Amino acid sequence: MSERTAATPDTAAVQDAEAMPHRHLPLLTAANRFFWQAGAHGALRFMACEACAHLIHPPAPICARCKSRRVSEREVSGYGTVESYTINTHRWERGLEAPYVIAIVSIAEQRDVRLTTNIVNCPVDAVHIGMRVRVKFERYDDVWLPLFEPDTERA
Fold first, then answer.
1. Which of 6, 40, 47, 153 is geometrically suited to a Cys-Cys bond with 56, CB 3.0 to 4.6 A?
2. Which pLDDT tens digit goes with each residue over 16-66?
3. Would you say residue 70 lies in a domain?
4. Residue at 115 is within a domain
5. DSSP H helices in the chain
């Protein structure tokens, strides 16, 4: 398998590209393609157990809770909460412009399902633990990265 290299963002899908970090994209596989491409339809999707409704992330063919193999894709609301974060101030590589926020966001439907992501469209010093956020997708090639921005409707 070849390793994917970072791509140029679709300019129509990115606001303030100068402030965004350089992206290293995931390798798409049959098991994860649905997750990385769901943003094309404006949706955030995870695997879900059909027996107990437990959400599974990262994708797996078996439910960790009840051990059922009846799993399928499920769309979630796209709302979440910042559980932890850090403000990166170091420029690690060319194109990786600082400062930016790296956060752990739990999703509203199941708080133990968490994504490591970036918080965008707000000042870095405005981010806080407990902040309500909503998904915003950023497209690179055939991947839609789930980033999060402040949810002003639920704040």
1. 47
2. 444 444 678 999 999 999 999 999 999 999 999 999 999 999 999 999 999
3. yes
4. yes
5. 33-37
What's this model's pTM, rounded to 2 decimal places? 0.83
**87 in a structural domain:** yes
Q: Which residue has the tokens 């980033």?
A: 147
Q: Which contacts qualify for 50-56: CB closer than 8 Å, 24 or more apart?
A: 54/110, 55/107, 55/109, 55/110, 55/113
Place of tokens 């979440």: 80
Domain with 78 in it = 17-150
Q: Is residue 6 part of a domain?
A: no
Closest CA to 117 of 48, 55, 54, 35: 35
Count of domains observed in the chain = 1
CA–CA gap between residue 107 and residue 12 (Å, rounded): 26
- Convert the pLDDT of each residue in 76-92 to its tens digit: 999 999 999 999 999 88
How deeply is 87 buried, as exposed, middle or buried, from its count of CB atoms within 10 A (0-12, 13-18, 19+)?
A: middle
